[in-house]
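User: Can you help me understand a structure? I only have the sequence.
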Amino acid sequence: MSYLYGMKCNKKPRYLKCGIAENVEHRRQSIQNSIRKEFGKDYLVNVCYVKEIPNRHDAYTIEHQIQTYLKKQGLQKFWNGFTVKSNGSSEWFYLPKGLKQLKKYIALGFKYFQSNPAEMPENWERLRNGKIFKKAKKPDFEKQKKKSFQDPKIAERERKIRETLKH
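Assistant: Let's start by predicting it. Here is the structure, written out as tokens:
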């Protein structure tokens, strides 16, 4: 059994997350822990919407449909100027009207996922179990090395990242 969920964070009340999980509470805890590591212990994530979807393939199709609508409206936003590194970071959206607005897009997702499904990007793939994911890009290490040696800003940024990862 799959569940479509909506979650929000106490520090970002107009940011909502829309996703699919088989265990919503476990997913909530995972997301909260990830956000707390990045932003601090006073960030809490709460579930504000849950809808059971019996067919996993349909669940992921509906999720993709909803998120496509939200992205096309320009509602996929950044936290504090950075993308959220937490699990499901692409699933956070800035919704000025909150849950009421999310429910509108959920209704549209359910209404049109079969008759007018959102197009799947070329670099995405669907597994047999219905899950949808973005294919990993093959890194061009030679190109990256050249860039970092040519551009001092990139070299400095990479150095800072390495230092951060050591801690």
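Now, to help you interpret it: The radius of gyration is 18 Å. The chain has one domain: 2-120. Let me know which part you'd like to focus on.
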